Amino acid sequence: MKALFPLSGAIARRGLLKLAAVAAGALLFTGAAQAQAPAKTKVAAIYTVPVEQQWVSRIHKALTAARDRGEIDYTFSENVTNADYERVMRQYAEQGNKLVVGEAFAVEAAARKVAKDYPQTAFLMGSSGKPQQPNFSVFDNYIQEPAYLTGMIAAGMSKTGKIGLVGGYPIPEVNRLMQAFIEGAKEVNPQAEFTVTFIGSWFDPPKAKEAAFAMIDKGADVLYAERFGVSDAAKERGKLAIGNVIDTQPQYPETVVASALWSMEPTIDEALKQVKAGTFKADDYGQYSLMKHQGSSLAPLGTFAAKIPADLVAKVEARQKAILDGSFSVKVVDKEPKSSAR
């Protein structure tokens, strides 16, 4: 009987050894899997407006897509005041984020100062200025090409020949889109008249709406909605609107004829590629917003596909083809557009 106990003990020991081996194997497998899994890049973004605002929403969308693919750990701050911007930038750099994205239009000096203090952090900022060595890259929504095409559509759809444009601020990033839109409209109707207003805000839909109402009262029947609120005015008065940056036709199916779309994915993907490779440097990423890089496009005509004259559609398609094959170039004009309406 005594012999049974040593035998049971031996069996138990062998069982424990097997369990230990299995556990060790599992740990090795887990460790190998973790070693094989690529490390996620820590990315932070700083926004001075809500992420729902059309311009910022494009950046947020691209970074969210990268997060959902498992490439990055993404955190962001929205509604950051200009006075607090520098502090938030420093905080994200101190937290070890490898890439910090944001808009520095109103805080250029502060943003560039922070970049100098954290040379190991990559900064990709919407900016009117040039890149700053070694780590401050700039980008912009270079969507003047589809803006030109929407201008053609606007002029072709206008019955009065009077077109209104409502923008946030007269900075190069806005000016060039409006200038391209106006030139596109002039290609279709050289006699078209334009009323231009800037509301002095990046996000004030009621103010943009009132500015649009004033234009409608002066005869404008097509409105360029660089800001939210303009399409609401057009809808209420039975006029047409042209969208900017995002496609709002689903929300305004009888109002928004066409939109110039911005896709931030090519810009973000290129920046992440450089950060991961350790080759990020000060550069101008604006080119990745061009149509040839799929950074911008003309939105599908959708509910207006059958309402736009066939000859106008043909002109727009021909001009788009010329832009894509390089035989036509949309001029970049950064100066503030002026009203021409009498």
From TrEMBL:
Keyword Repeat found: no
Pfam families for this protein: Bmp
Protein origin, superkingdom: Bacteria
UniProt xrefs under InterPro entries: ABC-Purine-Binding, Peripla_BP_I, PnrA-like, TAT_signal
The ABC transporter substrate-binding protein PnrA-like domain, residue ranges: 55-281
Signal peptide positions on this chain: 1-35
PROSITE patterns recorded: TAT (PS51318)
Segments forming a coiled coil: none
Keywords: Signal
Name listed for the protein in its UniProt record: BMP family protein
Organism listed in the record: Achromobacter veterisilvae
